[in-house]
Structure to design on (150 residues):
């Protein structure tokens, strides 16, 4: 009986490691999806600020609130196990040695986007430029340091 259980255990092993790989791939897909959704809204806000599409205070506010909430989501996807993923990822591996700095950049983003969301709704888009610029700088600071530039 013991033998049988051991055999069953051995049979299960590859399935387990498979499940774990699957799990860490899920995390990679999750964080990329979260960034993509956030980027979707942020890009449209940028286009309004730059005058490439008409400025609409209500729409801008709606997107700014979305970005502010979304900015807290990607962190969960940076699970140490994801270092083994074979999915395409632009995360620079050195992030794992500078995780504190990375987390700090994430916090800075959360703060800057909350500020932007609270200011959004103004009639004149030029009044939003500083807060938008500050949020955009948080994206760039982290991307320059921790995202592969391909
Ligand atoms: C703390 C770091 C950090 C901050 C802040 C950050 N990003 Fe990223 N972003 C990344 C990393 C790392 C990736 C790559 C993730 C991967 O491929 O696994 C990424 C990926 C993305 C992607 C997915 C597509 C691609 O180019 O890889 C978009 C879109 C994106 N970020 C937009 C933004 C925007 C917009 C902001 C600011 C509002 C922002 N990010 C702020 C680190 C950050």
């Amino acid at each position: 009986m013991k033998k049988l259980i051991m055999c069953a255990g051995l049979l299960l092993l590859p399935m387990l490691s498979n499940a774990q790989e699957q799990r860490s791939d899920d995390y990679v897909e999750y964080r990329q999806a979260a960034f993509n959704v956030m980027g979707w809204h942020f890009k449209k806000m940028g286009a309004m600020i730059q005058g490439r599409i008409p400025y609409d205070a209500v729409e801008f506010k709606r997107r700014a609130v979305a970005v502010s909430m979304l900015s807290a989501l990607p962190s969960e996807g940076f699970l140490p196990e994801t270092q083994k993923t074979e999915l395409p990822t632009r995360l620079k591996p050195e992030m794992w040695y500078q995780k504190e700095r990375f987390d700090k950049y994430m916090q800075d983003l959360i703060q800057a986007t909350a500020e932007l969301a609270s200011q959004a709704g103004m009639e004149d888009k030029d009044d939003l430029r500083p807060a938008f610029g500050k949020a955009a700088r948080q994206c760039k600071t982290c991307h320059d340091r921790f995202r592969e530039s391909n």
Summary: The helical segments are 2-49, 57-70, 99-119, 129-146. The radius of gyration is 21 Å. Residues 109 and 138 are 6 Å apart (CA to CA). The longest helix spans residues 2-49.
